[in-house]
Amino acid sequence: MSGFPQKFYHAVFWPIRILMGFAHPIVHVRGLENIPDGPAVICCNHSSFSDAIWVIVCSHQKRIFRTMAKKELFSHRVLGWFITKLGAFPVDREANDIHAVKTALGVLREGDKLLIFPEGTRVREGDVSHPHVGAVTFACRTDAPIVPVFLTRKKRFWAPLTLVFGEAYHPQFEGRRPSSDELEHLTQEMMDKCYALGGMQCPSA
Fold first, then answer.
1. What is the mean pLDDT of residues 111-131?
2. Residue 167 and residue 43: Cα distance in Å, rounded?
3. Is the per-residue pLDDT at 205 higher than 60?
4. What is the pTM of this model?
5. Is residue 65 packed enough to be buried (19+ CB in 10 Å), middle (13-18) or exposed (0-12)?
6. DSSP secondary structure string, 113-165?
7. Which of 97, 91, 183 is CA-nearest to residue 139?
8. In sequence order, what are the residues at sequence separation of 6 or more whose Cβ sits closer than 8 angstroms to the Cβ of residue 15?
9. The pLDDT of residue 148
10. Which CATH number is 7-196's, of 3.20.20.70, 2.60.120.10, 3.40.50.1010, 3.40.1130.10?
11. Would you give the DSSP letter of residue 50?
């Protein structure tokens, strides 16, 4: 298992959950049984800054999900420190970030779970989803299953939230590694699965 320290996660789990409960007292969580014991790529739609925290605290896992997050979040000293303690690591979305790729692959190869928001940015109603192929690439290179996840897009104050973990699956492709066309297709398939859990169609171009 990964050597990432877990003590901070366990220390702040309930305080964070209680604080977030003031904004959304009711959270309907379904499909926890679909989270496998071993490594997995947890892929969720993305509509707000709090998405990662909701997925992490509502998953009730003994080990925290490691989260790939945009590097801009780490530029603020306090926020950067906090999310790093909660398992996040930065990725430069504008470049071929080899270090982030190696970290992501290492997380999965060490037996932990990797949380990714493939859309890369918040997609609200009326926006178009442009998912990146990284999540599928990591899954294919490590033979880790993908767990599609849907989280309520509109997070109105005090309104109930729904978080659904779908069935884990392995992307199917020809050959030793998927081609670029296959990666695009598999990525769209993955996002379709995420949104379908919420009874929605993926807002693709």
1. 90
2. 12
3. no
4. 0.93
5. buried
6. EEEE-TT-S---TT--B---SHHHHHHHHHTPPEEEEEE-S---TT--EEEEE
7. 183
8. none
9. 98
10. 3.40.1130.10
11. T
